[in-house]
Amino acid sequence: MAHRTTLEEEHPVRAAKAPKKPGGSSFEKAGTAGDRERVFDAFRRWGYLEATLDPLGFLEPQKRPELDGLAGEAAEEARRIYCRTVGADFMHLLEPERRRWIAERMETPAGEVDQKKILERLIRADLFEQVLQARYLGTKRFSLEGVTALIPLLDSILDTAGELGAESSIVAMSHRGRLNVMVHAACKSPHEVVAGFEDVDPRSVLGAGDVKYHVGATGTYVTSSGKQIGIHLVSNPSHLEAVDPVAMGRTRAKQTRAGVDGSQIDRSRATLNTVVPIVMHGDAAFAGQGIWAETLNLSDLEAYTVGGTIHIIVNNLIGFTTRPTQEHSSRFASDIAKRQSVPIFHVNAEDPDAVVRIGRIAAEYRATFGGEVVVDIIGYRRHGHSEVDDPTIKRLRSFANCPNIGRRITTAATNPSMKSTPASRAKGWRKLPTASSACRKDFTFIRKS
Predict the structure, then answer these.
(1) pLDDT tens digit string along 232-265?
(2) Is the pLDDT of residue 72 over 80?
(3) According to DSSP H, which parts of 83-189 are helical?
(4) What pLDDT, on the 0 to 100 scale, is given for residue 327?
């Protein structure tokens, strides 16, 4: 691997000299280690723009002239790494050791993942939304459908953080997918969540209203290895990013208490790794609400740092009714993070293996360097802005072109005849249809009269 991970200083890819005889450029031949390294350097810098990231195909890969004409074995290998369902945007980092670390992780063959667990978690997350939709039709819940891969992503982050010393995690997010995260990450009882739809308290005049998807939750997450991690999901008002500084403040307070040693406070990396902040954002809010940028600005200051935050953009490529091209000037909502040394990993939400792998890399990066990291998980929104809305009005093109939108990933994983998504191509997924019945049993609720 050494010949592919020695990163060079910033410079444009040099054009190959015209060959004296037909036979292709020096890049095509990749006859030396230097040629191979320059090919990989080009893909490290620009490959994320040519990655296939949108499950519905509206965000098309953007061809780059820097990659045109690069062919041969090295180019094909680099294209497989950087231009498929993961787009790693990290060459803007000022620290060469961080760039080298990410390149090594990206270019090392991906390890095996627990596909049985991933599929079970996807089905549980999907069935949870289906049960609420069927039993409380027309009630707002801000479904996670279309980006349910967020649940195995959180599993991967928390499992890795647990291995690296985490004892608790402060989690913050807005309302979309909040109920699902409460049940599957904060481990709140599904019955407690459903009670918010029932209005069973006779003293209630206005019922639960919108409180159920703004309140917090506290629970214990058990990792795959059996370690327990305390989870606190911070309450959040309707202002989507208002929770960001609150989560950072709570994280730093817990880290300070963990580091108290007499009159001294230990703020070593090991101490900071005991409490891991995870903040989830919508794509429109990430790009458009300034409070997040203000909070990020404090991330590396000694008086405010929490040793890095793992940011997840739950990206359905729409903000209420606004498309990305009308929402932010940059190609990605995450580009605002590039003003600092923050790596960004874009990943197609319908490639669950890739989602889990990137979750592990993000957690390891945060623990290793104590820096911020962004995971931009790109999917779609199955319903309207809320379940009260008609989605065909607010995103007509998506539903006109994809009438069966929704539940694509789990259907592809369990149906051998479907081959349209990365999930359907993963070996072993089709052997697991029995998980559905077990999950459905857990989410069969009886309405109280």
Answers:
(1) 999 887 778 899 999 999 999 999 999 988 788 9
(2) yes
(3) 96-107, 115-135, 150-163, 178-184
(4) 78
Q: Strand order of the sheet with strand 217-222?
A: 86-89, 344-348, 373-378, 310-315, 275-282, 168-172, 228-233, 217-222
Q: Are 433 and 184 in contact (CB under 8 A)?
A: no
289: Cβ–Cβ under 8 A, 6 or more apart, which residues?
Answer: 239, 240, 241
Among 54, 82, 107, residue at a domain's last position: 107
Query: What pLDDT score does 296 carry?
Result: 93
What is the span of the domain harbouring residue 203?
Answer: 115-442
Look-up of token digits 């880290």 = 255
- Mean pLDDT score, 91-114: 95
Model confidence over 264-319: pLDDT tens digits?
A: 898 999 999 999 999 999 888 888 788 889 999 999 999 999 999 999 999 988 76
125 near 148, Cβ under 8 Å?
yes
Rounded Cα gap, residues 135 and 445, in angstroms: 9
- Do 305 and 259 reside in the same domain of the chain? yes
CA dihedral 345, 347, 353, 356 (to 10 degrees): 40
Tokens representing 437? 């019945």
Parallel/antiparallel/unpaired status of strands 168-172 and 275-282: parallel
Phi-psi region of 428 (alpha: psi -120 to 50; beta: other; left: phi over 0): left
Q: pTM of this prediction?
A: 0.81
Task: Summarize the chain as % helix, strand, coil (round to 5).
Answer: 45, 10, 45
> In angstroms, how far apart are the furthest CA atoms of the chain?
88
Question: Which secondary-structure segment (H or E) carries 373?
Answer: strand 373-378
* 127 shares its domain with 208: yes
Q: Which two tokens stand for residue 277?
A: 């902040």
Q: Averaged over 21-43, what is the pLDDT?
A: 68
Residues 311 and 188 in one domain: yes
428 strand-pairing partners:
none
